[in-house]
Amino acid sequence: MKDGKHITMGIESSCDETAIAVLADGREILSNVISSQIEIHKEYGGVVPEIASRHHLNNIPFVFQKALREANLGLTEVDEIGVTAGPGLAGALLMGTAFAKAVSAASGVPLVGVHHIQAHILANTIEHPDLEPPFLSLVVSGGHTHLIEVLGYNEFKILGATRDDAVGEAYDKVARVIGLGYPGGPKVDRLAKEGDPHAIEFKRVYLEKDSLDFSFSGTKTGVINYLHSAQQRGEEVKAADVAASFQQAVIDVIVDKAMWALDRTGYAGLAAAGGVACNSALRAALAAALESRGKKLWIPSPILCTDNGAMVAAAAYRKARLGLFATDRLDCFPGLNIETQLYKLDE
Question: Which of 35, 234, 276, 295 could be disulfide-bonded to 18 (CB atoms 3.0-4.6 Å)?
Fold first, then answer.
């Protein structure tokens, strides 16, 4: 506690960002330090788990000190420490949870285990004070594509999920075959602005009637087959048209399914979250679809869409208000399901 404000630290290390933030009263960002490994993993065309873990180990003490310094706080003024315990890369998660448990044990500051997707969703609460459960959330990232009913700050129901590639994974694979490199999402988004989104009709996969699940492998394969066929015929390919047409196919499905879920549940709007929620075309398409229905779009600033400590702190703050603390037995869970997280993280 400082100056009457409740102070929460959030630690995120589920993939390749070492991120620690400090929030006051669950909304005011006092610091939000992110050490990215993008330049390191570019050489390999994607995240290498062992390398990511090694860099988390090296970076986390310095990120921790910088987060406290920028917040102008001492550790004794922190009321709880939240840490991402899953899902994610096992070694990367272990670096964050081990560090958080050590700091908690040494300082006596209570520990809160946080689900990575829960954190992404509740990043919206930092900037949108009007957003409270229950509500509908769309989570789109490198590892996840979910439609989730948020029944409470720690109660979730999955309405739809990806059956194969997550949307961010599909972006990365398409970027690779186009020749854009890693990370694929931002590069495809930028290139698509120069192309015609209707130049090539790639497959839109909706699965069974009324299904809210997602499948992007067919669309991704369609791009690969198109490029191979053009190469065999000696035809020139306009990469911008490929990027724009792929992106349009993916966004059409995401927006359609999100609107179906919204129509079925009857909520006042949609809270979008996750790294792919930075995508400019998706943000515009969601805003237009929701406006046409008289519904609201809650979406974080881009810095709060990608992996960051502030979102973990926001989730930890809400869980702490519910009395949901972890013990020094907190483990990391690479495949943790958001519906069944409670008994694993809060004991």
Answer: 35
